Structures are given as structure tokens and as C-alpha cells.
Amino acid sequence: MGVRFPVIVTCFCLLACNPLEARHQSRICWYKVLQEIIRSLNFLKEQKVSCKQMNVSDIFEDPKENNQSEMLCKAAAVLTKAQCFCQECRHLKVIRVNLLELTRTVRCPVNTTSNTTLHGFLERLTDLSQMIMKQNLVH
User: Fold this and answer.
1) Would you say residue 3 lies in a domain?
2) Rounded to an integer, what distance in angstroms lies between the CA atom of residue 130 and that of residue 34?
3) Distance between CA atoms of 70 and 72, rounded to whole angstroms?
């Protein structure tokens, strides 16, 4: 089987792409992923889900220790654990996958001694996501 024409054209365009244009496309993609995270978080806040009262690790207890990328990665790890116990929240998976897409990291260790409710965790994650969005829109 030969390679189809659209695949060849796509590969050629990607190879010939201006690096500045590639950075711009990456920024647009990043912006859309972050928008989807915020949209999903806001949707979850509106939902009546029993597992929002479950305890999860509070990665936000000392945010000065971590940079934003580490915080997002740790948030994905917390959501991975929460997702196991909260089958009714399929939006947790969407948020987790998008967080991993942003950080491009597979694993982040979460070593916290304090807990918070999933509801509180989602509120703080929304705040962090909105702050990152605002900071990057300015630059």
C-alpha cells in the first residue's frame, strides 16, 4: 500500500512550516485545552454529584513549592485517584486527560499530608486554571 496524497501534503506542510507559525499554532492548541478544562470544571460545579464530598489530597496547601506545570500534573494525579471512586463523574476523566496534555507528563508524585473535599479541590483547580489563562493572555 502506498502513502495517500493527503498524508504526503500534510507532512510537506508541517516540514515547511515557519517555526513562528508552529509556536502560534501550539499556543492556540494550548489555549483551547485550557478552555476545555475550565468549561468542564464549571460544568462539574453545577452538577449534583455525591462524590464531591469525598476527600482528596490537597496539593494546593502550599502552592509556592510547585510551579504551575507541577501543580497541573499533580492535579491530574489526584483526579486519577478520585476517578476510581467517582464513576458518575465522567468529566473528571476529561479534565485529567486535558491536564496531562498541557503538562506533557505521565506521572507526578503527590505527597501531601492534608486533605480537602473534591468540591474544594475543583474550586481551587478552577482558580488556578483561570489564573494561568489570564497570565498567558497578557504575554
Assistant:
1) no
2) 8
3) 5
Q: Rounded to whole angstroms, how far apart are CA atoms 23 and 61?
A: 34
Exposed, middle or buried: residue 83 (CB in 10 Å: 0-12, 13-18, 19+)?
middle
Do 112 and 58 contact (CB within 8 A), yes or no?
yes
The CATH code of the domain that includes 66 is 1.20.1250.10
In 3D, which of 31, 20, 19 has the Cα closest to residue 137? 31
Quick check: is 15 in a domain?
no
State the number of CA atoms in the 13 A half-sphere of 37 facing the CB.
31
Prediction pTM value? 0.74
Q: How many domains does the chain have?
A: 1
10 Å CB burial of residue 104 (0-12, 13-18, 19+) is: exposed
Contact criterion met (CB below 8 Å) for 96 and 76: yes
In tens, the pLDDT along 20-63 reads: 344 444 555 778 889 999 999 998 888 887 888 899 999 988 76
